[in-house]
Amino acid sequence: MMKKTIVYIFALGCFAFGKELKAQQDVHFSQFFASPMTVNPASAGAFGGDIRGILNYRNQWASISEPYTTIAASFDAPVLKRMKGGMFGLGLNFYKDDAGLSKFSNVKYSLALAYPLDLNGEKNHFISVGFQAGAIQRSINYNNLTFDDQWNGVTFDNEIPTLDQFGGNAVNALDMATGILWYYSPTVFTKYFAGVSLYHLNAPNVSFNEADDPMLRKFTIHAGAEIGRGSVTSTVDAGGFSVLPNFIYSFQGPNRYFNLGAEAKFRLQNASKFTNYHNEMSMSIGPYMRFGDAFYAVMRFNWMGFSLGVSYDINISDLTAASSGNGGYELMIGYFGNFGANPSRSHC
User: Fold this and answer.
1) Which residues of 130-144 are buried (b: 16+ CB within 10 A; e: fewer)?
2) Which ranges of 232-347 would DSSP assign to H, the alpha helix?
3) Rounded Cα distance, 166 and 321, in Å
4) What are the pLDDT digits (tens) for 243-265?
């Protein structure tokens, strides 16, 4: 009971005083590297393949109260790849986040357009510029909450209306984002990327009433790499090792978000020169730290273009008093299609 009380007080405080404190924070995933469309719109189509689809699911704080859940889905692909000097990338993204008993919900639909500019004419070194536009829908269910003025001296009376104190219970707004991404893949087993992005470019008003409550702009810096060795052979033999470092840093008003970690990737079955990445089998595992919040481990498995990722957070912040260290788990399922693969194509 005490654990739930702590969380409820914290959540209601953020809601009640959010306008003064600007206590807004976007959804984020522990496996941020596996949710490119929520990190940088310039990521649309910026990969060595033909299509990419990803599903993400996050469930946290179930040990304290009603779980906070986030689900995201994205699809992107490079188009007009035969253009001289570059290509275009198109991406669709959706996410839905539900927080606690109030079911405070954030839903977003967006479309991204990116232009990766070929820097060396070999289709393995690009600068990509992207833009994203979409709709944000926010809502809250007051029926699951109780307030001081609903206390009748004996119990809480949910029939006493509270909606007038806060205005409406839903709002819709146009939201825009932009970003730049650099990536370079000198070999099949080596690639580097880094980018910056700005979300809520137009600072949409997300107030439930007539007040002016613009959404705080979010700035993000992120980078990663795959540093490995191996060869694409005519036979299917096992072997090869890579290191996958990743980091992301975001700030949105007073909120800071810094993740850093790395994975060791083991290729259990190499790709052949005839099918390239179509039949590679690999797994990776490694530790990550979300500074000031949680430590977590990530494990990923890849085969025939499909990818499965699992992670679990161990809470290390002040909330540990209520959570007992139980943070949340996350699942990722992805598919990367490369239908015209051959050894000469880059894999960014």
Assistant:
1) bbbbbebebbbebee
2) 320-323
3) 31
4) 999 999 999 988 889 999 999 99
